[in-house]
Amino acid sequence: MDRRTLIVGAAALGFSAATVATRARPAAARTAGFFDDVGQISAGNHMLPAIIANTGTSLTIAAQVRYTTTVPGGHHEKGAADIVTFHSTDNGQTWGPMRYVYQTAGPSGQCGYAPVLYRNDGDLVIMYAVGPQNWSTDQLTVHQRRSTDDGDTWGPVTTPTITSAHTNGLPSNGGKGFTFLPGTGRIVVPGRACLLYSDDGGASWTATPEFAGTVETKAQPYFIDGAISRTALVPWRTGNTTDGRIGKIRIADFYSNNGTVQHSFGASNNLGFDRYDNQTLIMTVTRSGQLYVRRSVDEGQTWIDEKLITGSAPSVRYSDVAVAKDGTIVVVYMTNETSASNGAPLHVVRFDMDWLTS
Question: DSSP character for 108?
Answer without folding.
Answer: G
